[in-house]
Each structure stands twice: as C-alpha cells, then as structure tokens.
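Risk mitigation, structural track. In case the binding assays with adenosine-5'-triphosphate fail to produce interpretable data, a predicted complex structure has been prepared as a fallback.
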Amino acid sequence: MIKKFIRKILGVKNSAESGKANPKPSVLTAKEHGINPKLVSANAIRVTQTLQENGFKAFIVGGAVRDLLTGVKPKDFDIATNATPEQVKRLFRRAFIIGRRFQIVHVMFGQDLLEVTTFRGPSNDAAPKDEHGRVLRDNTFGEQHEDAARRDFTINAMYYDPASQTVFDYHGGIKDIRKKTLRIIGVPEARYREDPVRMLRVVRFAAKLQFEIDAATRAPIAVMAPLINNVPAARVFDEMLKLLTSGHAMACLQQLRKEGLHHGLMPLLDVVMEQPLGEKFVTLSLANTDERVQQGKPVSPSFLFASLLWHQVLEKWDAYKAAGEFPIPALHLAADDVLNAQTDALAIQRKIGADMRDIWAMQPRFEKRVGKTPHKMLEHQRLRAGYDFLLLRCASGEIDAEIGEWWTGFINGDAEQREKLINTKPKASGAPAAKKRKPRRRAPNKAKAEE
Ligand code: ATP
Ligand code: MG
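Fallback model:
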C-alpha cells in the first residue's frame, strides 16, 4: 500500500505500462483468487508435480490460468518451468521436443497433450529482426518474471501452482480480469512491431471474453494493421483458425472490422466481409461453427474455409459456365482460382485445400437424383461434410430446401425408402442454382486464351 503510494507520488509507471520485467509478483492464495481446483486437469497436476519433485519450478500458465480465474474449464493446459527442454523430456515417457524458433516439449498422456515451455529470457535487442522490426528468432531462456514480461496481455501472464494453490501475478492481470479489460504488457507499438499477430490476438480475446480493449492497447492498431502482411502466411493461418474456431467467430469478425483490421489484411477476410451475396451463407456457417464449438463438438477447418470461400467459387463457376465451359470442369477451374489466390496469402495447407475441393465438387452431384448416382454418393468418404454443406446452401436460400430434405431422407432411409425416393420425381425447383443450365457447345479453353 505504502509502496503504491510512493510510486504514485513519484509518478512511477507500473510494469505493464513500462514494459519492464517486474521481479515481484502479487501472490494470491486460494481464498483470494477463488480458483476451483476441480477445473484443473489431472495431467497438468501430474506434470507440475513431477517437475517440482525433481527440483524444478513448474506452473500452469497463460490462457488456462485466465480461464480458471473466470470460472471457465480450460480447453488446454500450458506449463511453464525453469527446466530446459532436455531436462523436461527426460522426466516423461512420452515427451517430444518440437519447434525450431523456440523449443518446447509436448508431453502426452493418451490423447491429452500438454505443452511445456521453459521460461523465456528478456527480449534481446540484438535479436534478428526483419526490416519492419518483427523479431525473427529470440531463443534465450530466463527467469519467471522475465517470462511474464514477454507474454502478450496482463491476463495471460499469470502462473498457478496447483500444489500450493497459489497464483503469481506479475502485471496486474487479476485486476484486469475483474475490470474485464484487455491490456497489452509493455509499450503497445513496440509489442505489435515485434509481433504483429498480437493485433489479431487482441481481437480474438476481446470478442471471446467480452472484455473492453484498454485505450492505449487499442490506439495503435488502426495504423499498424498493415504490418500483418509481413508475417509468414502459415502463422496468420494458425491465428485465423484459432479466431474462427474460438466459439465466437462472428463476434471476432465484427471486432476485426471495428478495429479496421480486416481491410486488405488478407484476401479471405475481404471476401468474407464484403460479399453481399454470401453474407447470409457465411453468417449461417459461422453461427453453426460457434454452436458446435460451444457444445464441445469438433469443427473441421476444411469445412469452415470451404464455406467461407463458397460464394467466391460460385461467382467464378458461373463465369466459367457463361464462357461455355461444362459445369463440372468449370467448378474445378473456379476451385483452382480460389484456392491458388488464398494459398499464397493464407497458406491453406495442401490437405485442407484438397478436402475443400472435395466438398465443393460434391455439390453438383447432389443434384443428380436418378439412377445409381445417389447410391454412389453414399460411399463417398466425405459424404457427411458434403451433405452438411448442402444443408447450409439450402438454409441460406441459395438452393431449394427440397434438395436437402430429399438427401436427409435418402441418407437416413432403408433400401426400400431409398428406392422410393429415387423413383419420386423431385418437385420442380424455382431456386436459381437448381435450374439446369444448358451449356453452350464447349469453346475449348476460351477463357484461358483470353487471359
Ligand atoms: P486460448 O485459450 O485461446 O488457447 P491462450 O492464452 O492459451 O488462449 P495460446 O495461443 O494458447 O493462447 O498461447 C498461450 C500463452 O502464450 C498465452 O496465454 C500468452 O501468455 C503466450 N503467447 C501466445 N502467443 C503470444 C504472442 N504472440 N506474444 C506473446 N505471448 C504470447
Ligand atoms: Mg492455449
């Protein structure tokens, strides 16, 4: 209290504002922080206990502590320790050192994966950076308080020791949790310059936790947003995937727009947020994803990205058909165009790209409801994803709801019901995409020749 008073008189900034490592944390007892020990994973306790029994410091850290403090069951647990990766690896049967930029250890118990990270040292001025100031490599180990100063937000820089049930708070995280404030540690401009991905993280956490962004944390984002373009596409993809599968994807995208982060940030977001035709489709798809995440169901990145980009595919598909291409090859050409454009900017992995193409390519096949085709579809490896996608198209009004209902009956029906459905003439459809378009005679590679 007295210290606080003296600091106030001297105008000393707190460590979150100054960005200096604060060696003295606030220490909170179980009664003060109120964490429910039942929400702590048994495997996380196993890891911290093993490390501590071997003479090391070990804590649950980051998002898990933040979630525990808000009474939410964390989806994963990260551990921070002063043991080196080699020392950690030796203590566990299934432990793997991964990462080149900064080595961490994956400790596995069955399907459960825990990430164990050695405390990181102070950011080194001599660390290699790109021409915009983004830190490329910085691998020094350090003390716990230095590790805390390198984390992104005050609420993500707390450490919980399950053995003593104590929380160590270096940057006023508890206070910010109670005030529902998202505050970056250190000087915001400098922290965004070191790692522009932190701007996307601000948005994700604000939307997910429904926290206010502190004014100083928010102010530089609009100006610094273009720095995201210098970040390797694979990292942006990872962060975008976290954002879209956070259970609050819609809120995140709205927040991105509010912060001016969507514009030119990456083609995907421009497409998603500025296509009037696809808006309903994308809204439905994200609402669907949010619901699945909130129910603890898995979401597939390929389904998610296939739906985000569907209206771009539709537009190009129509253009190829109008240029005289047959529908199926036209769809593949459209898929090529869309995937190529996105792969450069967002590094959609090859496997995800292939799955997206599968989902798209199934769509016209759902419209053939005669002969053997529907039976063949039942054997398709990705039938479920393709069918869910079809239902989204129906729900958004792109195609007649009757097609979706027909397929629901066909997939769930027995042999007799299926035969009956095949023999029922589908009702005439008024929806535009369900209309049979007669292709003009194929003008070979006309579109290509004009390029
Ligand atoms: P979630 O619950 O969404 O996983 P999280 O806080 O655990 O949230 P992660 O991406 O798993 O987020 O990161 C774990 C921790 O690592 C963070 O809480 C933060 O302390 C630190 N961290 C992650 N990314 C950065 C970054 N770009 N800059 C600084 N610290 C980071
Ligand atoms: Mg996490």
